[in-house]
Each structure stands twice: as C-alpha cells, then as structure tokens.
Write a structure and sequence with these properties.
It is built from eight helices and seven strands, in the order βαβαβαβαβαβαααβ. It is an alpha/beta fold and 259 residues long.
Length: 259
C-alpha cells in the first residue's frame, strides 16, 4: 500500500533500537526523511547509516537525552518543523508502591508524560499552520491494564493518555491527528531486561522465562519491532486522517478485554 507520505519529514525519538527503530524503519520505507535520536551515539549513527543506505532517505541523527530540557532543545533545533512526530523514551524501573517517593514520580512524569507533551507543544503549531500533521506516542499496554510492578509507568503514561484524549480533539480540525500505540511484550532489549529480572528472581533459565511469558500471550510469541513500526507508519499515513485520539493495543491478545 502507498502510504502517501513520501518526502515528508519525521522526528522519531529514542529510535536507535527497539520499537522506536521499528517506527523509523517503516517510515523510511515509506520515503519519509528522518531525524533520529537516542543517548548513545554509536548505535544511533549505525541505525542512521543503515536506514540511509537501505531506503535512500535523508537521516539526521542527534545524540541527546530526550527527557531533559537541554536534550529536547538540541533535538528540536536540529529537527526544525516536521510533519510527523513519534514520541518515545525508556520506561521507568519496576518496584513496589512503597519504594517510590516524590522524586521518583517527578522523574517518571518527566520521561513518559511531560517529555512527549513538551515535544507536542513545540511541534503542533507548525503542523497546524500547514494544515497537516501526525503524532504517534509510544506508551504501553499498562494504560489499559496495569502492570503492578510498573506503578511509575502506569501513572505517568495514563497521565499522557488523558492529555492526548483532549488535545487530539482540539487539533483534529486543523488536519493534525494524535494517537497512542500501546505495546505489549515485544522482542527488544527492554523485554530481554524484564525477562532477565525474572531469571534472577526465580532462578530459571532465560528460555524458561520467555516460554512462561509467551504462554500468557494468546499469539504465543513476542511482537516484533517491524510489526509495531508498520502500525506506526499506517497511523502516520494519508489513510489514517480519521483516526483521532485512539489507543491502539499491539499485544498479541494479552490484555483480556472485550473492548
Ligand atoms: P529498547 O529496546 O530498550 O530501546 C530503547 C531506545 O530508546 C534505544 O534506542 C535507546 O537508546 C533509546 N532511549 C532510551 N532512553 C532514552 C532517552 N532518555 N533519550 C533518548 N533516547 C532514549 O526499548 P523498547 O522495547 O523499544 O521500548 C520503548 C518504549 O516502549 C519504552 O518506554 C518501554 O517501556 C515501552 N514498552 C516496551 C515494551 C516491550 O515489550 N518492548 C512493552 C511495553 C512498553 P539509548 O539507550 O542509547 O538512549
């Protein structure tokens, strides 16, 4: 399918690896020029080089922490006006409700709620002025069904979801859509690290940890970054202009809910 976005320009945050890279790759395949970001320069440059050579699009790579004011300023200055924004960052650490104080919540809110809001605040005016724009926020299945050990993530991402629900309806009249993508378990470094925690806590092998987790997913496997990216690119396409303020779950059926 021709997504109709060849020649557009996208900022994809936290995109040297994993789900962010999957989104960047699918947009590049649709002919979109990219501004990529991650903290580590080496993996970021390698991803940028791979996408340039495979898809022939322009790729700018900015190594910076997107959850800091200084990092965002650097990335936004390099990006300039964009047609498409994909927000993403690492997730907060797991724990128990009694582990966390005010500073932990401020860090989580900064990373997974206030950072995507700051990026939208900076870039929505340009999209509105040109009468076309797409924003996709990478959140989590924990927005639909809480993951008890990820209380910081549950809280911050649900706050972002509430913000998007209202804001998406305010910018839709100007041709700009905002939607959230909610990953369940995908085969990325983040999943390996979560499975590593189970290996240590329960004294089992990595294979056993993965087998147990897959058994909880009706699709009986982890998702891939390529599948995730394909959905992101569709939401950014010309065909998705009527999809507004939605939360789209990609979890192999793991969240047991009728709607
Ligand atoms: P990943 O494989 O660990 O990749 C994370 C990417 O983000 C890397 O490119 C990393 O590069 C970059 N990054 C992390 N923190 C950053 C920061 N502060 N500023 C800029 N770049 C940053 O993670 P993932 O699995 O793709 O997960 C992406 C998001 O989805 C996370 O918020 C995660 O919690 C959420 N999620 C993932 C899953 C899953 O199963 N994978 C499920 C639910 C939710 P650097 O480290 O070099 O910065």
């Amino acid at each position: 399918m021709d997504l109709g976005i060849k020649g557009k320009r996208a900022l994809v945050c936290a995109s040297s690896k994993g789900l962010g890279r999957g989104c960047a790759e699918a947009l590049a395949a649709a002919g979109v020029d990219l501004v990529l970001n991650a903290r580590g320069a080496e993996a970021l440059e390698a991803t940028a080089a791979a996408l340039r050579s495979q898809y022939g699009v322009n790729v700018t790579a900015i190594a910076a922490d997107i959850t800091t004011e200084a990092g965002r300023t650097e990335v936004l200055a390099a990006a300039g006006p964009v047609d498409i924004l994909v927000t993403n960052a690492g997730g907060p650490p797991p724990g128990l409700w009694s582990d966390w104080g005010r500073d932990d919540f401020i860090r989580a809110l900064d990373g997974n709620m206030l950072t995507p809001i700051a990026l939208m605040t900076a870039l929505l005016p340009g999209m509105i002025a040109q009468g076309w724009g797409r924003v996709v926020n990478i959140t989590s299945q924990s927005v639909k069904a809480p993951i008890p050990a990820l209380g910081l993530s549950n809280a911050a991402r649900t706050g972002l979801t509430g913000y998007v629900a209202g804001t998406a309806r305010q910018v839709a009249p100007q041709g700009v859509t905002i939607n959230n993508l909610l990953p369940g378990i995908h085969d990325t470094d983040r999943a390996i690290s979560l499975d590593g925690g189970v290996v240590n806590a329960e004294g089992i092998t990595m294979d056993e940890a993965r087998r147990r987790r897959m058994a909880t997913i009706p699709a009986r496997r982890y998702g891939t970054s390529a599948e995730f990216g394909a959905m992101c690119a569709f939401l950014c396409s010309q065909h998705a202009g009527f999809i507004v303020g939605q939360n789209i779950l990609l979890d192999g059926g793991a969240t047991n809910a009728t709607i």
